Amino acid sequence: MINGIWLGLIVIGVVVAIFTGNVQAVTDAAINFSGTAVEIAIGLIGIMTLWLGIMAIAEKSGLIRGLAKALSPIMKKLFPDVPADHPAMGAMIMNIAANILGLGNAATPFGLKAMEELDTLNEHKGVATDAMVMFLAINTSSVTLLPATVIGLRAAAGSANATEVIGPVILATTISTVSAIILAKLFGKMKRYKVENYIEKSDVENVQEG
Amino acid sequence: MLQTVLNTISLYAIPAILLGIPLYGYVKKVKVYEVFVGGAKEGFDTAIRIIPYLVAMLAAIGIFRASGAMNFVVKLLSPVTSLIGLPAEVLPMGIMRSLSGGGAEGMMVELFNTYGPDSLIGRMASVAMGSTETTMYCIAVYYGVAKITKVRHTLSVGLLVDAISLIAAAIITNIVF
């Protein structure tokens, strides 16, 4: 599906551009966005390094283990395949906590660390595990109590009450996160999404890549 | 009042963590500086590893955005979405929300400038913007770092939840305001 959507974006984009006369804009966008992607990654190096360092202290001091233990009843339900004392649990908790507080630039480094840790439990490299899909689902549905960027932009646009959207946002994000968790669990049980369906194909591709 | 409280939280949250964790570590007899440096050294590799995934995703999204194809998607979907009280003006931003966070943010600001942040359209855009994350970006970044290309049900779940989130934003805004 991801191959289809990726190709679809490019095919639709180029074909539509021919009819709308935006061909030059498409060329520029492809080049500029590739540059932006690299800038984002480079920009991540600093905060990634900072938060990984802080996280190492939190781990070594037992802070994360304590947090993971306190939240283990929920975490075990969400991620049954991840051992309760695995470092992935701590990193995921830190990521979700940072998201809830609206600290986007701290959430990403914790999330990346969590994915690396989850991959150490992955028996079929290159194929997402149930825990990874659940973690991504929770992240893409956004768990936040503080939509800081939106409030900032509303205030900048001259809103009389920039924070009035907080309640509705919390309600909407709760609905989306709960449906994300339910759908991730349900779809994970469907035949077409079983890990076994993807193993052979990815092995073939690995061979082709040499 | 609420605004001040929130501003204070966003102002102090990160300094509090940057102070609290090393201080707690020190109390627990952790060699804070040495452990920090030891943990931090993976930062570079991790960030660099996501580049190919991010370039692939953002270039495709950039091509789609620049082509003007969004207008056609909106024409196709707006008859359906207007039934649930989602104005055609908000729909492009709602779709862009799944593809590009920066793109959606720009569209939201444009809606603020045209209709005002306190109009129904401005409020609905705010709720839609705040209640979800950029699915495509999350997939590129998080799966990039673990070199995952077989995403299984991630995309179906992510996009379906984006749709649910947009519908919820429309309904909630219509009821609350």
Explain this structure to me?
The complex is a heterodimer of chains A (210) and B (177). Chain A is globular, with a radius of gyration of 20 Å. Chain A has 2 domains: 1-45; 62-209. Chain A has helices at 2-20, 23-60, 63-70, 72-78, 87-100, 104-119, 130-141, 148-156, 166-189, 196-209. Chain A is mostly helical and 210 residues long. Chain B is an all-alpha fold. Chain B has 2 domains: 1-41; 44-176, no CATH class. Chain B has 10 helices and no strands. In chain B, helix 4 packs antiparallel against helix 9, helix 6 (91-99) runs antiparallel to helix 10 and helix 8 (120-130) runs antiparallel to helix 10 (154-176). The longest helix of chain B has 26 residues, at 2-27. Chains A and B meet through helix 1, helix 2, helix 6, helix 7 and helix 8 of A and helix 1, helix 2, helix 3, helix 4 and helix 7 of B.
What kind of sheet is the major sheet of chain A? none
Oligomer: heterodimer
Distance between the termini of chain A: 24 Å
Apparent shape of chain B? globular
Morphology call of chain A: globular
Tell me the Rg of chain B in angstroms.
Answer: 21 Å
The CA-CA distance between the termini of chain B, in Å, is 20 Å
The tally of strands of chain B reads 0
Helix content of chain B: over 70%
Counting structural domains of chain A, the number is 2
Major sheet attributes of chain B: none
Helix content of chain A: over 70%
| Class based on secondary structure composition and strand pairing of chain A | mainly alpha
Instruction: Quickly count the domains of chain B.
Output: 2
Beta-strand portion of chain B reads under 5%
Counting H and I runs of at least 4 residues, what is the number of helices of chain A? Answer: 10
Helical element count of chain B? Answer: 10
* Integer average pLDDT of chain B: 92
